[in-house]
Structure to design on (376 residues):
């Protein structure tokens, strides 16, 4: 047992030391200091099992001594040494975090040893209690977070599913009711609306599945050799084809990007989400710049648009599930795309940054290691 004795009176310190001498040297080791400041410094440098603390010291007096010591050294059993047998003082001392107190002129070897052992044990139990309290609190917080996610999912789902479902129902009803009276053009129109609504539902379900639990969802990291430049060229070509209406996409490639080892499916989610956001949130069109730079083992992807921009207050929440910024207006979305992007970037041990100015445009920068660090 390593004991720190904090006692300024040489006579009292000697008395305590004699008690320990009777125990035999192999069982204990005593370090003696005379001031509270020295005691705190000792505890920061060495590890002790227990502290015997006199209340009246040159640099501190009374209950302050215990309070100050506990504040600086919170995890350490403390037994206080007092001059008198005072019930009141004992209670106060315990309330300030000491485990026990000993009246100096009543100390016997037996009493001393028992008090120290109890103090150590009590402190251990106290720490265990504190640990389980911390665990319970963190489990509770996790559950709260999950509940929040659930309720935001329910309110989002009821809204996001309801709109396309209603479109489908009304279109079908109209088709049924007025089939004969409808022109071919009108009929096609309703079928197109139904198809768009179904696509919207499928998109929503796909995103939810992706973000769902690891096994059910598709987000697993499976790196494979990949020619990044070709991959990006194919992807931008596809997007140009499907979103040709109002935006142009220019792509730039720099460095040797032909020998990457990445997860193509995850990379696809990252880039399609960023590019389709860039298109979607540029309602008045413009050019979307997409660039890829491969150098020093890192691939840097940038997607820059000249669209709505993201309000500063929303920027720190972008990657949260279901989060949509305050300036989206009537532009449709579920707020899941960037949460998926973030997961895919994390699985690659990469990084994502956003730079955006309201009504000027947005630039997302994703950096990913060209190959997994353990594959070298
Ligand atoms: P979806 O899940 O269909 O992608 P979404 O586009 O609303 O829906 P995210 O892609 O996660 O969701 O984007 C979250 C929010 O961030 C968007 O709702 C939008 O407010 C904002 N945002 C994302 N990209 C841009 C961008 N390029 N310009 C402006 N705002 C953007
Ligand atoms: Mg999106």
């Amino acid at each position: 047992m390593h004991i720190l004795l904090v006692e300024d009176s040489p006579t009292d310190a000697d008395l305590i030391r004699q008690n320990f001498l009777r125990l035999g040297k192999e069982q204990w080791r005593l370090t003696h200091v005379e001031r509270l400041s020295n005691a705190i410094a000792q505890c920061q440098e060495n590890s002790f099992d227990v502290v015997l603390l006199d209340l009246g010291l040159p640099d501190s007096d009374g209950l302050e001594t215990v309070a100050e010591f506990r504040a600086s050294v919170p995890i350490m059993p403390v037994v206080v040494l007092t001059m008198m047998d005072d019930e009141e003082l004992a209670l106060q001392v315990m309330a300030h975090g000491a485990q026990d107190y000993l009246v100096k002129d009543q100390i016997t070897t037996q009493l001393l040893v028992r008090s120290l052992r109890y103090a150590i044990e009590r402190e251990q139990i106290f720490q265990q209690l504190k640990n389980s309290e911390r665990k319970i609190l963190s489990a509770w917080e996790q559950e709260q977070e999950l509940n929040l996610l659930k309720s935001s999912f329910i309110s989002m789902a009821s809204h996001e599913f309801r709109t396309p479902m209603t479109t489908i129902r009304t279109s079908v009803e109209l088709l049924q009711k007025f089939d004969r009276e409808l022109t071919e053009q009108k009929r096609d129109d309703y079928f197109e609306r139904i198809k768009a609504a179904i696509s919207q539902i499928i998109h929503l379900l796909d995103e939810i599945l992706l973000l769902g639990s690891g096994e059910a969802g598709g987000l697993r990291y499976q790196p494979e050799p990949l020619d990044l430049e070709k991959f990006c060229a194919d992807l931008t070509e596809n997007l140009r084809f499907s979103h040709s209406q109002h935006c142009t996409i220019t792509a730039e490639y720099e460095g040797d990007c032909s020998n990457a080892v990445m997860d193509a499916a995850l990379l696809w989610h990252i880039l399609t989400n960023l590019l389709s956001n860039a298109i979607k949130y540029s309602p008045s069109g413009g050019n979307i710049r997409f660039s890829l730079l491969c150098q020093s083992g890192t691939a840097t992807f940038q997607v820059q648009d000249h669209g709505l921009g993201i309000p500063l207050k929303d920027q720190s929440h972008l990657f949260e599930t279901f989060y949509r910024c305050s300036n989206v207006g009537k532009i449709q979305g579920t707020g899941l795309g960037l949460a998926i992007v973030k997961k895919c970037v994390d699985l690659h041990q990469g990084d994502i940054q956003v730079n955006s100015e309201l009504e000027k445009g947005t630039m997302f920068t994703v950096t990913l290691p060209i190959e997994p660090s353990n594959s070298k």
The CA atoms of residues 26 and 158 lie 72 Å apart. The chain has a mean pLDDT of 90. The pocket of adenosine-5'-triphosphate (ligand 1) is lined by residues 207, 273, 277-278, 281, 305, 307-310, 318, 323-325, 328, 333-339, 362 (CB under 6 Å).
